[in-house]
Amino acid sequence: MLRTVTGPVRAAAVTGAVLPHEHLRTDMRWAVGIDSDPHRWLDEEPSVTAELRELRQTDGLGLVVDLTCMGMGRDATALARIAAGSRVPVIASTGLFAEPFTDVRDEDADTLTGRLMHDISSGIDGTGLFPGVIGEVGCWGAEPTPREERCLVAAARAALNSRLPVATHGRNALALLEILLAENLPGSRVAAGYAGTDLAAARKIAEAGAYVSLGVLGLGADQAARIALGLIEDGHAERLLISTGVSRMMQVRRYGGKGYAHLFHALLPRLREAGVGEDTIGVVTHDNPLRWLTDGMT
Predict the structure, then answer these.
(1) Residue 296 pLDDT more than 90?
(2) How far is it, in rounded angstroms, from Cα 204 to Cα 177?
(3) How sure is the predictor about 297, in pLDDT bands with cuts at 50, 70 and 90?
């Protein structure tokens, strides 16, 4: 069973494509120690709802994973309204985002794990809505700080306690993955957000048993296609996740952005033109994200 904001959904009932790394509502305009960014937010509920509804009708969108966790302006009730209005199930998240955005001081990993487990067992921010994933957690700079390392350790421990999967964010995806693996979290429970250009590094993530999670907007469609095709050609199709990666107002179609459909309209056509068959497209867009989401439950 998948934990969505509108109630449990059987994984087998999700027959369409899954967007495993999106943001439907965020507010990261302010942080500690870095410049504010008036564009680093997304609060456009009617437009987001309309886009998801249209994608369900035109491209068979079956599920969205919202990776907006603590420190990112998450709003579980807004996610529930978007899910109900679009009729697309949405999974919400818990987790402690990168250090500048989270209220983490000197708490040890066990205390931070307790914070995550409270979300998982009692619901998000008193809403009675439960997270179905931990993430995105990771680092803001080139390498994780000691506080970010503790947040990653807490994510791994909460994942082991709850059986939920983990998604990471950060430039050094391999370093973040190593922290999680050191806590004995299986690689198959981790979606490692990858925004680099080095296919060899992406290959190492897959070889560790984790999923390489690509965002089309962050990488660009051509670069995302190059990494995806390289992994598929290397025999790692079953370790690949792809999503659009919307996180800002300017990326929504109403404001001239490419919208959540960009994966379907830009990356998937490139893969098909390169000879990737529909069976493999289905593995990447449907089977892999559902396997990642449910691996700990089996």
Answers:
(1) no
(2) 10
(3) confident
DSSP H or E segment with residue 227:
helix 221-233
Other Cβ atoms less than 10 A from the Cβ of 211: the count is 28
For residue 273, cis peptide bond before it (omega within 30 degrees of 0): no
Task: Dump the DSSP string for 147-208.
Answer: HHHHHHHHHHHHHHHH---EEEESS-HHHHHHHHHHTT--GGGEEEE---S-HHHHHHHHHT
pLDDT in tens, 97-126: 999 999 898 999 999 999 999 999 999 999
The helix (H) or strand (E) run that includes residue 224 is helix 221-233
User: Do the Cβ atoms of 189 and 294 come closer than 8 Å?
Assistant: no
Q: Specify the length of the chain in residues.
A: 298
pTM of the complete model: 0.97
